[in-house]
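Comment on this:
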Amino acid sequence: MANILSIVLYVLLVGIPFLLYLLLPTFWRMHRTSFYFLAYLPVSLFASIRGNVGTDTENYRISYDLLDISIAPEFSNDYLFSFLIYLCKTLGLGFQGFSIFHAFLCLFLFSYGAGKIDKTAPILGLGLLPVLFIDSTFNGLRYGLAFAAAATCIHLYNTNKSQLRIAYLVIPGLIHSSLLPLLVMSPAMIFIAATSLLTVDFSSFLYFSFFSSKAESYSEFQRPSGFSGLVPAISFCMLFAIHTVNRNTIRLGPNLGFISIAIFLAGAFASMHSYAGLRIMQVGVFLFAINVSQTAQPCYRKKTIRLSFLLGLIGALNFLRQIFLVGADGGVVFHPYTFQ
């Protein structure tokens, strides 16, 4: 039987953003970044005292505690995340201190990014973030921070005219390599990649090496059940419905919409054989949400808001189903909540 504290806590964490929007829609329209900061502040606070709640938390804790800073660091493929861990450990922070720093870094990046991306309706901020933010800070710390960085970096890339703006697309991929496909958005990077393929062996190409090691790291996980990919598929279809309502089209080529659809379809195919496919599908859904939100039209605002709410509620109900009905027997280690 799920204890009352866990039920109340998780319902509040996923429900506060929706309730806040219903109570303060004008505040969202005028101060979106501040709105998201307040809406997800409780998640950050509880994430920093969560104990070992979260499927991957214990593994992160063990790796952090075992890190020896007296020897030269050996950064993994996810260089920036590895550097962040090494930096926090060097500063004398325990895993608890690192968790606080990570949670609030995600809070600032997600709040700013979603606040700038969601101009017409809370597609990213309410459609995905209620569950994504919890998973980013309670569980998948690497990909969560990379997604938070991507939300901010994609906005900065789109609004910056500098020749060096490609750096914004590099940052998320160096936190978690699943976001390296963002580089395809840059024509300059396509040219560099094509030139590299003509001069070096493909097996040693950096981009290929990143994804080879990532696939290998997921190889130990069992093949997911057919139901595992259902919610990402529903989320993607909901986002496509929002995209259709706004009468937008998908252009072929190196743009975020086309890239996100290609990633999602690749993930759906891979999910039939490997757990890694679910992560790839999640990347596709996240990037497509950003694209849909950026192209949403003000004249279809009311329909877009209703669909965004429905999208977020589906995700929230599925999350509560997983932690309270599926539970640890199904590999979901969010319940019961324990304080550190």
Observations:
- Residues 4-330 form one domain.
- Residues 86 and 325 are 37 Å apart (CA to CA).
- The chain has 16 helices and no strands.
